[in-house]
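Tutorial sheet, problem 5. The two components below are modelled jointly, 402 residues in total.
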Amino acid sequence: MIGMSESEIRSSEAAPPGGNASDARLVEDVRHGDHSAFEVLVNRYENRLTSVLLRFVRDRELARDLVQETFLRVYERLDQFDPARRFGPWLFRIGVNLALDYLRKRRRRLWPSLFSQGRHERGPDPAVPDPRANLDLEQEVRRVLEDIPEKYRTVLVLRDLENFSSSEIAAILHRKEATIRWRLAEARMRFQEIWQRRQTGDASPLPLRHANDQESDRE
Amino acid sequence: MNWNFNCRKTRRLLALWAGNDLGQRECQSAERHLAVCPACREIWTQLQQSQQVLDSVRSAPLEEREQAAARPSASAWPWVSRHLRAMSDKPANLNRAASSWTSNWKGGANWRDWLPAGAVAAACLVIISVSLSEVPTDETVSPSLIRSSPAAFESNPRHLGPFPLGLWHERRIQPDDNEPMSL
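Model answer (structure tokens):
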């Protein structure tokens, strides 16, 4: 199974900031009041965390705010962190949850406009190819992803766009690995269906799925 | 071959296989099914194509991602460090107010977030006030007083308070009954 090792998750740089000090050691130092150890952790993870959160919020400034807030929350909750577990997935869990919470709140605020002004502001139907010839691949993928339910989309983004392994995603999302694999398969099938329909211009409704019923016993 | 359980199960395996997330044994199982199912072979081709799209997006980072990674001034540490110092200077219960994430975000939480809770609270207040206004204000009459002069209460049954009306009528048609009234 292809996935990133913990050292790869940390950063794309050759040598991690802070030298070879382990995350567990740095966390212990922070707990004893050493702010410089926390600086090392911030420098070690911020680029990777920014990259992941940009997949969700698509806005650099907003992603930066979320990264800052993530580190602040991590610091505040450091006494709740179990040193027997890995620090990276715990950090990413807090960051991803912040991003998803933000998106849910924003969606709730958009509800009134969706009901009052129709659906014209939602953007093009993903089943219909966009008429703009210069629409790049990235934007098309984003539109397809927006049509996939959040719990599948999150797994797909973390696995296929950010290259986390299934076990790491399980740790980040606090789910069993079997659940993550189930969601990953479902997410890829949905992506393939919607993508295919965009390519062929098929506007008929998507077939009904029953993934929720079958997944419940894997939670 | 029709769409059946084997196809459904195999397509899940194919979706995992497309991203190299499948073990050797499961690959062989999927291969055996593909050998006899043209419909799944077509899906397999499409899954591989869509996986290539995702792979190409992964290998071509967004412009925003590149910029964020390239800007040294975008480091989170100065902001985090400033807030950690502020947290050290303030009592613990004030920390969250100083670092509230909603205060960071443009158009963060506002009064609309509290609107549903406020509406429910207002509805509860209205129900309570209406139900209180319908409660009789007269004092409850003791059964011994009713027994001594039932005619006084006949004209206004509200004086009976919690006294069971059925029992009252039963007693009224037997005025000579000397047994003590049980409640």
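Marking note: The CA atoms of residues 101 and 108 of chain B lie 8 Å apart. Full credit if you identified this.
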